[in-house]
Structures are given as structure tokens and as C-alpha cells.
Request: fold
Amino acid sequence: MVVANLLICSFSWLVACQGGESPGASLRPDILVDDFEGDSYLNWTVEGEAFGSGPAAGTLPNQMPVTGYYGHRLVNSYFGGDKTTGTITSRPFVIERDYLAFLIGGGGFAEETYIELLVDGKPLRRATGRNTVPGGSEELAWTSWDVRELAGKHAQLRIVDRRTDFWGHINVDHIIQTDRSLSELTAPVRTDVTAKYLLLPVSDRGSPVHCRLKLGEEVLHYFDCQLAATESRTRFWAALDVRQLVGKQLLWELRPASMGELLRQRLRQAEQRLDPPDLYREAFRPQFHFSPRVGWLNDPNGLVYFEGEYHLFFQHNPFGISWGNMTWGHAVSRDLVHWEELDPAIRPDRLGTIFSGSAVVDLANTSGLGGEGRPALCAFYTAAGSHSFEPKPFTQCLAYSLDQGRTWTKYAGNPVLPQLGPDNRDPKVFWHDSSSRWAMVLYVRRDAYSIFSSPNLKDWTWESEVDFPTAYECPELFPLSVDEKPGEHYWVLWSAAGRYLVGNFDGKKFTPVTEVLSGEWGPNAYAAQTWNHLPAGRRVMIAWMRSDGSAYRGMPFNQQLTVPRELSLSQTTNGLRLLAKPVKELERLREPWYSASAVALSSQKVNSLSVKTPELVDMEAVFRDIEAEQLIVDIRGVPIVIRPAEGAIECWGHRASGIKPVRDLDLRVLVDRTSVEIFACRGEYVMTFCRVIPPENRSLIVRAVGGRATLSSLNVYSLKSIWQKE
Reply:
């Protein structure tokens, strides 16, 4: 956005970051000439086609990635490709500082692709990009002109693209008047740590910044981040815990280097996180599903129960709302419903970023990592070496905690398993009673999983490979009794996409007794995992609600998890099948809303029931004596169609099939602000959807089509938010 030539960008420089180098007291505040954040060239005269109708939102079609610009937009004359030409010329302004500085990239042709300073209509200064041969980079870098001799004069800027061959374009952004020289603008950023947290402003768009934070020659942290250039562009403030480094000076290595100046301006230090003011009350925040405070979430990891706490770790990007910087986020609960998010548990290191894995309690101290009376919590994760600052293979690693998971130490002997395949990953570890050894199931190649055993969690032996057509990443392996009969049990081998095999497992080899079955029929449940060490043999699973993120527009977070689901194994009319239902603890959120019983539904007579619903819905319905061709349950605009004769349930274009023709059917539906979960036939059929539920739609309509049925019972509950204190 163009700013009048006397408007001073004072705040951004006067507070110029409590974490970076402070400006000299004698410097006058910078004057922003233009940051090009608007959608038009306000106060610039445009000629030709090359510059489009307004600043570009980053990289244009068929252009190499453009980096090094501030904010969301920049001048980019690649509109239409290199063949277009044109100019943009600013309104006159008064030169009031010693230097005129700007970010520039693109073509390096002095007579064809350049920015120039005009005084009295005469060109006095000129600068170009750096590229004059095919190849190169679209990265912008700082350039400045010494204009002290022109103080007080009226001037204009003209940006020119006259070239129609390779590198026939010019990129410009963030033009300022400043008293700082080029060497000061491009100086390395050093931070004297004075507080517990370094706070970085994160945007959802803009030029990515590759950051390395070093103490001496040691890389302490590395991550990618889209730094927000202004407060209005800040989606959230990322917090980096540096409490152990207070009193030290840290060096930032940044790529693009131009981002050093922006980091100097916007970095803060604080004794606590800077949370959004309406945290957990945002318009599109799930109210009874877990979502991270800020940043990206995907796979649940390290699920373990210990000393009254359910630990939930998860794939997390603390520095953005898209996938990246994989770190183990951490939350705890005492009831599987209300969650307290803690600081991230396991961060990237030299071996790689921290991909998915699992956790166990080493009660017998087989690893020797525990203390007297303090069993170690042991976490197993994949070190994604290709994402390290020094690329390496994927390997499996161990970390442990002696303080209920609050702090973690990485095992000095990592990795505990070397690379076994290009993307081997996602170790699921558990204790196998019969063989008195630890077992690990690991993804090594498509359509199969590998099984390992260990006496001590450190030394692992390959035992077997299980063929599993359609299997891909995030394996799970756990036992369940059949219909809760103690003497009969099988093991369930689960894949990321919600497919499973039922079979036998002796600690070394899994032998299936079923074909590959489906445990999830919707589009948005992925990478499910179960809790280790639950009391009374209970088995509870939770999954990532994988989606395109459109349900969370404008939010400081992205993605959510399903509700925890209790699993059982039953001999059904279809054979051995896994059943899932929401954990009983969820009922603590219930408040009665509406109930009915023995409602006759008929196409000829009363063919529908219509009820107003609350915002957060838990609905249970039982249908009897079904003769209708269809039963339709439309809840808050969610269309659920049951086709009894076809043995199918449909919702939003997805179909659960294979249900034996039935006269009776049970259905449970959970509706949150951004998700729907459907459980049918005692939970044999589960469908998970992640999308915004129309907030204005508060209706429930149940009807029969092509025949009759009895709505034997209907119970609708309103659910309280899990973010409200009990």
C-alpha cells in the first residue's frame, strides 16, 4: 500500500526488535515510500502490460519461485511472461533521508530492466536485478542509493521493463527512505537472549524464510517461516523456547538474506507466549475436537497413558499453518476430553525433523534410562534426515523423559535403527507379553510392514514382513478380545488410510485371518493411532482429520483430530469386524436437548420429523422395522442417506457399503463447527468429514422415502465446549 511521503513507519523501527540489534539513537525513523501490499498501483502511473493491473501476489504463472520480498505482494513485471514490456512511475516525493533503499531482483540489463531515480525529470540513479544469463534465481536483495546530496529535492521513481528475451522482467519491493547504509541493512542479525521466548510473527502467505539459529558454530534450531511484515498480516506469533540460552548471543542465518532486516524489525522477546486474544473462541475453532493452539497439525503420535494422564503428541508445525518443520507437539488430558497443550516436546536436530512415532512406559527399566522409582517414558520417532540442514537418510530414533513427559532427552546412541528403505518411517512400539519383548511395526515399503523385536528398546532385530495390500505408512498393531470374551482374542494390524487386517501375532510374525477390511469410509480420517498402557485392557484410537484446510479460513491454526474412539472386535454377520464408538467420557459434555420414541415414518402419512438443534450436536437414533427404500437424516445441512436394501450409507458423495440388508439400524452422529462423524451398526461403519458446517443451519429432519420405518428412539444432545473450564 502506498504511504504518503511524510508518513513514518515509526513503530516498526523504533521497537525494531527487542531481539535484534538496536538502531543508533541518532537515526531518524524510516519513511516508507511503498510496500506494494495493495491490489492496485495506487499513486503510480502504469504503461504497457508487463506490470499487470496491480502488484503480484508472489510468483506468477510459469515463473521460477520468487523469494525475498516482504509481505504478500511485490512489483513483478512477469505478467504475460518475459515478452511483455511496460513502466510504472511514482508520484513525486521529497527526499528526506540519507539513503533510498529497496529490494530488487529479476533481469540485470542496465538499459532494459531497471529502477531509476528521477529528479527534475532527469535519471540520476539506476539499479537492476542480478540475472543476465539463463538460469539464475528470482530472489530479491537489498540495494540502496546515497542521496544525501539530493536532500530536500522532489523526486520520482520509475521501474522499467523493455526486454522481451530471457530475464525480461524486473522485481521490486519495499522502497524506503532511511538513514541506514546498505551495510547496516544487510548486517547479520544477532540476538542477545534476555527472556524465555523468542516470538516471530507468522503470516499465511508471502516469501518463505529459511532460518538457522546458531550458538557459535552449533545449529540449535532450523525452520522455515513466512514472516509477517506488518501486524495486520500476522496470523499468529510463533514461540521458540530459549530459556536455557538467556545471557547468550545467537546468530541468525537466513535465506533469503534480505529477510534479516524484516526479522530485526519484528522479532520480540517475552517471558510468555503471545496467544491470540480470542484463543479457542475463534469462529472456526472445533469446540469438542482437539486442535493446536496455533500452527499446523497432522498425525497423532506417542499416545501413552501414564500416572493418570493421557499424553497426546502430534505432528506439528509451530512456525506456520501449512505442513513443515515437523515437531512433536504435546497435550495432556485426564479425561480424554479436556486437553491442555504444553510446549512442543521433541524438536528437529541434526538427524532431521521429527516425523511420526509412538511412546511407551518402560516400567521394568529394560532400557536402563529410568531412575529409581521413575520409569522412563520412551518415545520412538522417525528422524526425517532429508529435511535436515545437512541432508541425511531417514532413521528411527529414541527420546526419553523422566518428568511425566515435560522435558525430553534424545538418546545418545541415536539412531536405534538405520535406514532400511528410502522413506522408512513411523515406528509403532509396544510391549508383547507372551514373548516378554518389545515389538515394533514399521513402514519400510508400500503394501507391507516390517516387524522388529528388542529386549531393551535400544537394540532391534528384524523378525518378519507382513504383506498388506494398500498399506502405506503409519502402522498400528494391537490386540482385542472378541465380543469381550477373555479367552478369545486377535490382533489388528491397521494402516494409515483406515484399512485393517485381523490375525494372530506371536511377537515376531503376524498371520492374517481376514482379507483387508475398511475401518473408515469417509474422506477425512488418517494416520490413526491407539494409546499404549491404558488400564483394564481398554483400546482407544484417535486420528488426524486430514483436509485441505478450507474449513479454518483466517484461523491461527490448521487441522484437527477426531474425537477419541473406543475400539472392540466382534463377530458380526459379515465376520470378524472392528467396531468404533466415541469414548464414553464424551458424554460428560452432554446436555439434554430433545428426545422422541416410537415415531412412525411413512411416505403416505407422517413422513418426516423436524427438530431444531443446538450448534454442537451429539445425536443417537435407532430405526426399527425398516421397509423404506431410503431413510434420510439431514442434520444441520449434513445429508445422510441410508439405503437399507442396498446395504449402504451415503454422505456428501461418499458411500459405506457392504451392510447386510437390515430391518433395524442404529446411528450416531457428532457435529462440530468444522466436522461430522458418523457411526452406524454399532460402529462397524464409520465416516469422517471435515468441512465448515453452516452456522445458521440448526435443523434436524428425519424422513422415510418409498416405504415406512419406525424411529424407535431419538436422542439429541447439546455438547459443551471442551475449552470451557469445568
In short: Residues 193 and 624 are 68 Å apart (CA to CA).
